[in-house]
Design goal:
There is one protein chain. This protein is mainly alpha-helical and about 220 residues long. The protein is about 50% helix and about 10% strand. It is built from ten helices and four strands, in the order ααααβαβββααααα. It has a two-stranded parallel ribbon with strand order 1-2. Strands 3-4 form a two-stranded antiparallel ribbon. Strand 1, helix 5 and strand 2 form a beta-alpha-beta unit. The longest helix is centred in the C-terminal third of the chain and has 31 residues.
Length: about 220
């Protein structure tokens, strides 16, 4: 794969330039090994011809599409099937929908280690005008779409928000504030529920279960 991918293609696909280090360029070809079943003979068996005909489904966010699009372009040249893609969307930061969440910025994200009080504090600080936040309805609904489990509940909130937007501002200002508060509260409840569910499941993972899961073995 490294012999087939051209530097100019990496520059175009990933936006790299002449000042970037050589490791960033070569990373594309080394990552591509995971796109082929022959890299997992300890899990999938040693029949190489069978493995070469086994296709791969890559679940990824669009921001790393450039790595694997080059793999798709060159896979048939070395006798492998092109991998398929399942794209996931990215959550925005709590500060706005124009950038994605970063694990390096504590206030930009809700972490699965956060307790209920921290979740509430982060969301109110970001979206509650009473706490100095800025109500960004678009960002709130992006989070609700991800965390809220009830499609009916989500649609009701969305329709309610649309109705509030159509009201005349000069006579419905109080209603607008109430609507923003309700959105923040609904988001807080939805996120708290999912974080608590994750923490409960994680707490039930034992060392023996983890060992069994991580033990190398052929998948039947």
């Amino acid at each position: 794969m490294g012999l087939g991918i051209r530097v100019k293609n990496i520059k175009s696909a990933l936006g790299f330039g002449d000042d970037d280090n050589v490791g960033m360029f070569y990373c594309c070809s080394t990552q591509s090994a995971r796109s082929f079943a022959t890299s997992f003979s300890r899990l999938l068996g040693t029949d190489r011809e069978k493995l070469k005909n086994m296709s791969c489904l890559i679940a990824c966010a669009y921001d790393i599409d450039g790595y694997f699009s080059e793999v798709r372009a060159h896979a048939p040249k070395i006798g492998y099937n092109k991998p398929a893609f399942l794209y996931s969307s990215l959550l925005p930061t709590l500060q706005g929908s124009h950038v994605k969440i970063s694990a390096w910025i504590y206030s930009s994200a809700i972490f699965f280690t956060d307790d209920e009080a921290i979740v509430r504090e982060k969301l109110e600080r970001a979206f509650s005008t009473k706490q100095g936040g800025t109500m960004n309805t678009e960002t709130v609904f992006q989070f609700l779409r991800f965390f809220m489990q009830s499609d009916e509940g989500f649609e009701e909130l969305e329709e309610s928000s649309h109705r509030a937007g159509r009201r005349k501002r000069d006579c419905e200002e109080g209603g607008k504030e109430t609507e923003e508060d309700e959105l923040t509260k609904a988001l807080t409840r939805a996120v708290q529920e999912q974080v608590a569910k994750f923490q409960k499941s994680r707490g039930e993972v034992t060392d023996d279960y983890l060992k069994g899961l991580m033990t190398r073995r052929l998948l039947e």
